[in-house]
Amino acid sequence: MSVYCNSVIGEKKYVTPQVDNVSDSFVSEDESNSGMLIANKNINNEINGNWLLSSSSSIQEARLKAKAKRRLRKNSSRDSGRGDSLSDNGDLVRGTVVAPTSPKSKLLDRRSRLGKGRGLPKKGGAGGKGVWGRSGEVYEREQVDVKDPNYDEAQENCVYETVVPPLDERDFEKTVTPIVQEYFEHGDTNEVAELLADLNLGPMRSEVPSLAVSLALEAKASQRELTSRLLADLCGPVLFRSDMEKSFDKLLRELPDLVLDTPGAPQLMGQFIARAVRDQILSKSYIEGYKGRVGCEYTRAALDRAAVLLKMSNGGVRIDNQWGAGGGQRPVTQLVKEMNLLLKEYILSGDSKEAERCLKDLEVPHFHHEFVYEAIVMVLESNGEKTFKMVLQLLKSLSVSSIITVDQMRRGYERVYMDIAEINIDVPRAYFILERFVEKSFNMGIVDVKLRDLCPSRGRKRFVSEGDGGVIKIES
Length: 476
Known about the structure:
This protein is mainly α. It is built from 17 helices and 10 strands. Helix 13 crosses helix 16. It is flat and about 120 Å long.
């Protein structure tokens, strides 16, 4: 028997049909968590999609019933029959539970969608549109199709190679100058030769020696020595003797301009020419070829200087190392010998400025502790008061001018402290002189209190009282 009930929502009236004995079961929104089922009894009929409920059912239960049915239908269509679904009579049908997959996760997935294989990309990752293949894959030589409309018989035997355009005058100085300046730092002629070989110098080949020498004129003596070595090593692999002669001819013509920046350019140029002749990169008749054809006084001075040096070399004087070598490139024994000569010359002349200049020319700031060590040992081995005072004044001057740093000064004193026991074998008064010298150095501000307190003192012997049996005790 059907009964209709009136319900008012807002200001509108609705007539809801009600039926007796309506029953069914459905799954709520979260079936796995709540496990709750809403059941109604005696389902009789469904008219136009509306449930006919009994008087004991509420409107809310009908809405939940319809919502659960729509949700299960949506899930069943998404899983394509692999998940749970509702039968035609509303019963819940269990299927194989498959986790829903997001289409975004398969957008760039190149694995097989059939679930076969080891899960590796298709074709080893080399497949796909516009892909040439795996990296490192070698292809066979392609056979030329004679019937191809783009076939050209002249291109069949072509050989392709990289062509480097020759350097022009504007780019030459910008390219070669950094190479030479970097060479002054590392001193590796092989690296310079490789860099120049990669460049297409062309007619600018003869400009390389003139550029290197012009940069060396404004540099230090050690860098001039490096330049002479560079020219000797480049002659043959990269440059020819004719290029060297053209370069030195240009330098002699430009001497009036070079003197403006380097006043001693004529003498230095003469040394470069003499060294080049000695290294056989210039012919022995190079200087003689200028006789009677020189009108510039600077050029004449350079050639005269070169001729004098070559005559001296014939008499036994070596000019192979006339510039001197850089500090790090000379052996330690040679540096120690030069420092001893410097100290002896200073004791004789008393010119501290000249001693400072000579120490700078050695270009070994990391080895100045050896100079301090040799100076203090000279004081310990001397008997006069003159050497004592002059060495103190020299160390004070070098400390104030920061030519010798605090660290190098400290290392020099500590080396003397370590070797004082051996020095005392040859110099019996070494401990007494060292204590006095260190005290004076502290008063003049050369060393600090900590370094002064580290100065070792010789152990003294003293006789004990008669009750000890006349035993001598050694006191450190």
